[in-house]
Predict the 3D structure of the following.
Amino acid sequence: MAPYAMRESARSLSDARPVSYWLDDPGKPVARPALTGDERCDLLVVGGGYSGLWTALIAKERDPGRDVVLIEGDEAGWAASGRNGGFCAASLTHGLANGLERWPDEIGKLEALGARNLDAIEETVTRHSIDCEFERTGEIDVATEPHQLDELREWHARTEELGLGGFEFLDRERMRGEVDSPTFLGGLLDRRGVAMLHPAKLVWGLKEVCLGLGVRIFEHTPGLELARSGAGTAVRTPYGRVFARDVALGTNIFPSLVKRVRPYTVPVYDYALMTEPLTADQLASVGWRNRQGLGDSANQFHYFRLSA
């Protein structure tokens, strides 16, 4: 690239900000104050993403009298929970193929548990009126090469053999009836196993519900060290400690406070790109009629969706 073109490219990005599309929202809630001083509680939850917030929510629903504190090193949802593609999938095994390869004798039970889990997520979102643009659209694995189409046809036959309902094989004509792309040769539709949602709004909604139930949330409060304290546990933070009977760690890929766990986690990155808003004519020309999530059948883990 010529120096002039490089300068122009850099200038075009001068006002860009490194922020997720989902988190760049005027409805983003104000962060809770950081912890200063010591606190005591029955349950301490470390991490303010999906795992941590849902742990705190379920703990309070099961026992409203339980004193729950949650600490988050930055702001709730700032990491993976606010930066993902918004595919809320029932699969507990990162896809049926992966599950069949590793747990073939238990796949029926794993699929049933995953379906119950997705139903429970939808029920929670509905019961607490969490406005996270939840749509039970399903997802289509798309074939763009003949061998991929053959593989999807084989996978559909396998699901039928195993009695795993809910999957439909789409030939080219039926596929283009769902999404009118000339590059799509067919697909495998999982009609009930995936929902689309706004990932950051789900986090913010869970945070609001937790606060309403009495969970004490401290943001910009990283947990630095975990140690025994009498019959319980103490977690040190920059400006105080939390003494708790029990501690639940929801820190995902960030270094665990249980050091022996750290070698077993490896971060994996992917990237998301949003187009400009499409006009009605542009959207109609794509023929994406039922708003399903789309995923490719190759190993690049490409996925596509429509925002609200």
About this structure: The first helix runs from residue 3 to 12. The mean pLDDT is 93.
